[in-house]
Amino acid sequence: MSKGLPKRSEDYSLWYNELVKKADLAENSDVRGCMVIKPYGFAIWEKMQATLDGMFKDTGHSNAYFPLFIPKSYLSKEADHVEGFAKECAVVTHYRLKNDENGKGVVVDPDAKLEEELIVRPTSETIIWNSYKNWIQSYRDLPLLINQWANVVRWEMRTRLFLRTAEFLWQEGHTAHATKQEAIDETVQMMNVYADFAENFLALPVLKGVKSESERFAGAEDTYCIEALMQDGKALQAGTSHFLGQNFAKAFDVKFANAEGGAMEYVWGTSWGVSTRLMGALIMAHSDDQGLVLPPKLAPFQVVIVPIFKSDEQLAEISEVALKIKDDLKKLGISVKFDNRKTHKPGWKFAEYELKGTPVRIAIGPKDLENGTIEVARRDLLEKNVMPLDDTFAQGISDLLDNIQETIYKKALDYRTSHSFEVDTYEEFKKIIASEAGGFVYAHWDGTAETEERIKNETKATIRCIPIDQKQEEGKCVYSGQPSKGRVVFAKAY
Amino acid sequence: MSKGLPKRSEDYSLWYNELVKKADLAENSDVRGCMVIKPYGFAIWEKMQATLDGMFKDTGHSNAYFPLFIPKSYLSKEADHVEGFAKECAVVTHYRLKNDENGKGVVVDPDAKLEEELIVRPTSETIIWNSYKNWIQSYRDLPLLINQWANVVRWEMRTRLFLRTAEFLWQEGHTAHATKQEAIDETVQMMNVYADFAENFLALPVLKGVKSESERFAGAEDTYCIEALMQDGKALQAGTSHFLGQNFAKAFDVKFANAEGGAMEYVWGTSWGVSTRLMGALIMAHSDDQGLVLPPKLAPFQVVIVPIFKSDEQLAEISEVALKIKDDLKKLGISVKFDNRKTHKPGWKFAEYELKGTPVRIAIGPKDLENGTIEVARRDLLEKNVMPLDDTFAQGISDLLDNIQETIYKKALDYRTSHSFEVDTYEEFKKIIASEAGGFVYAHWDGTAETEERIKNETKATIRCIPIDQKQEEGKCVYSGQPSKGRVVFAKAY
Question: What ipTM is given for this predicted complex?
């Protein structure tokens, strides 16, 4: 009963799209490229938000909120930045509609044209640094450690639910520091926070690294990133953290009086973000042909109890036990849904929660009541067992959830390990990149944008990152034969 | 040390604006009418959000997210709705910028004009009911109980921080029901949730009532509201809950097969929202000439500890005690900031936390260490006491916070009581409305929009609501002398 989900092996892309819709995570709206995040999908995003928000606060950041609109002229103040974002932005030109002359509907009122067009933020560096100019006078005002949860708009031409949408939700951290080193440390710290979140909550192993110049954020000196591998062998950039140098400080004239005598210096900046794209990563990394597989730490509810009954009396008896179970599990911090609907049969419910990735399903029927047992099914391995309903069962479920979280991570890690390759020739390189299995390819590169570009054109593979833990190793570029000091990671990517 | 805050009695409006800025709550951005919510202000909003979100979930609602953009044609589908919002909306007409010909900056690319203009949502009924059309087929899909936290844009010409801004943050609930009664019950329930929140968290007594037809939400059959009274005698609408009838169901053709034989019926709807305007209500209702007064339940931190020291040794000794205090208070769920900065003097800190409304300030100096005491100051009454630092102190602080929450509420309630008047003549009516003290005026009204309009033009007073608990009482309209069955509440309003 997979509710008509296509198989991954047959059409991974279709499988993903169908899964997102059938599991009630999101759907396309009538507005081109903009999605609707449905309640079940949003509940997962809320868990991600809450977790990340706690991690940001633990590292000293506060939340704030800046305007949705950016005056067109601000975008132009940092040259690379405008180059990166001007080509795909939503532009507000008017502030009023009026009734159509023939009385049918409304039209834009030509008399309500804005003097300066406003851009719907694609990212907020410009509007934020324009505020920072007034907030920062002295070294005492630094560091300034701010995060914002917001919607942003980038007018992508080819969109896919969660992975690439015209509007998406994200968080963007924007920090200001007195020294270069402190800003770099912050950049690295936030990459590590993202990696920690990915591994311990998304159950997703990630590579940490630095982007090559051509993959860098528009306006950054360096972009750090975390890169994950999806089940189709393609990479997905799951989070980025940018060292901005003094670029935005210079563009917006943000200076501070230093501690050593009060000389005026430009501030050093960082920015970092993750988005609803993480939903795409989560779905693609773990799910199977039966539907979603959710790590327990991010599941909207971790356990579902399905009663098997033929009469109202049976349901009443089972309910009593089920509510006791729910209560006992709640005491251990486990979230439980008891699905006592009479409108749907148990088989339908089993398929439904399998599709929606509920980590643990408990079924209770009349036989179980007699025997003092429950049937416990784990979603990740599609295994089920009969467990005695005794004093230890709640702890048993708690341990099972921990085990599922670990197992999912381990499976993704094993997959990545078996899909990571060191290659020394361009032939090998092309063979792996072109193969259906795909994967991360560790190869020597001569460090030039030209070679990078040619490889991309010939194979569609891009440099995902220069790993943080890159081994120092003399070698020759797989493409040009020029010397290299270490391998970088190539892959096809989302 | 009021840091130059104007007095309320001299210029209430200026006092408010200055307080919002000096207490680091928010500031105007360079984008007309759009504010920046600063970290301290946003921390209060986050507490409001978390509390309300819990209340929505406790009443069965789930969060979701719908697109920022609304196709122009959607807005027109409900006639009253478009009439209400078309005149003040931000319109996206293009999706790309390009480099200016003379190489200076960027201009809108005329080749990237949208086929249909998009409106930045002023509220989301239209885009949401367009989705509901696909989500609802049968009575089994109902009720549909969804909330969204989002930014919205209404192109207001005269803006004020928090109270009226072009962009603001809010939540909007949108529910769909099988019966009229169920939808009305939901509408009333959410008004009650808002009133509960206002009274128990904002410490703000509110009137519950129904709007007159002319003050109704554009597209609603009935608008329920909560109305609060500010310290300048003006009313502030703090939340609204709309019974939409079948208006949006008809505009977007949302029907369901009923439980009795499956006949197709139009769905009944509600929508309800509160916004960052609540921040304005909070500030204006309680604060004084010294600065903010925050109810403990919404304060970013409830207690601040200020050490009084002359040497590093003294600071070290005090810190040990302070951290113990912080720990003990934390165990009771109390949030504490220990401000051990050496860059600022105790007097500066005292003024700062007074300005920022921290409910309780604890000062510890060398004398206190000797005596085993602390100095405890409550912000609301500007009173201070020396307390022994013994086993009971933490509970004492907890009780004090409860007392502050109650005292603030009581003060606002007393204010409202002493500023509520029953009047029977238009002379009396005009006298009170024109007086500096202002207030709520309970008066008979003939129920016509004409009278309402004339009173508004002559006095600037509007009908705030027809109270839910309106006494049935025969009377004559203060304006027209026509018969009336009960008093309604008039006031000048924000």
Answer: 0.96
